[in-house]
Amino acid sequence: MRLRAVILLLCIPIFGCNARWSVDFQDDDLSDWHLPIASYWQRVEENGNGFLRLATAGPVGDPRRPVQFALWKPGCVSDFELDVRARRAGKSLLVAFGFQDRLHYYYAHISSDSGNHRVHNGIFKVNGSERYRIGGAGTRPALPSADWHRIKVVRRVEPGSIEVFVSGEASPLFSVIDRDYLYGWVGVGSFNETGDFDDFHLSGTASGECRLEQISPLDEN
């Protein structure tokens, strides 16, 4: 049975509602996910364990940016913590967050490359034009092997902090201060490759600012 828990911990109108969501992909129901080009996504099972697979790569947006990531529709949040397992099939995957519309969001590019690459392995921003790096330059690879890795993203909007942790380490691999996007959806995918995701755990302060008519990252929507 799929675990999809929503727990409202505290709801005060001035400060918002704290909520938690957990998804383990143990059944076929993907209705709470916005899946750009839904046929590219599959629920797959290995040894009795279900997970989400991005099975077909691309497309890439114009201006150049990722557009193939699945967004968790119930989870429009401001402050949040995301913990998810990821397994690359090629070189890289990503976690998108602060997604407000197709041209305004952040993403963490997690890669077998180091942060010495201009557009790989780090924190990036789409702000009405082509994506660009805002954090993680010079860092070691986030996904050194094609095994499963835990990825955690922590966002605090008041100080503007973004931290990305890998493999349960105590210190972030990537970090930056940026206060442009103070709320948004959270999701997983890739720039132009494929891979797998499991054990999606999101907790945060719910926001009512997101608009479902703007949820698709694709250029034609």
Summarize the structure.
With 221 residues, the protein is an all-beta fold. It is built from no helices and 16 strands.
Question: Could you give the topology of this structure?
Answer:
Layout: E1 4-12, E2 16-23, E3 33-34, E4 41-46, E5 49-54, E6 68-72, E7 77-88, E8 92-101, E9 104-111, E10 122-127, E11 132-135, E12 149-156, E13 161-166, E14 174-177, E15 185-190, E16 195-206
Could you walk me through the main structural features you see in this protein, from its secondary elements to its overall organization?
It is a single chain. By secondary structure, this protein is an all-beta fold. The protein is 0% helix and 51% strand. The chain is built from no helices and 16 strands. Strands 1, 2, 4, 5, 7, 12, 13, 14 and 16 form a 9-stranded antiparallel beta sheet that branches. The mean pLDDT is 94.
What proportion of the residues form beta strands (DSSP E)? over 45%
Counting DSSP H or I runs of 4 or more residues, the number of helices is 0
Tell me, rounded to a whole number, the average pLDDT: 94
Rounded to the nearest angstrom, the radius of gyration is: 16 Å
Structural class: mainly beta
| Helix percentage | under 10%
Q: How many strands, which pairing sense, and closed or not: the largest β-sheet?
A: 9 strands, antiparallel
Distance between the termini: 33 Å
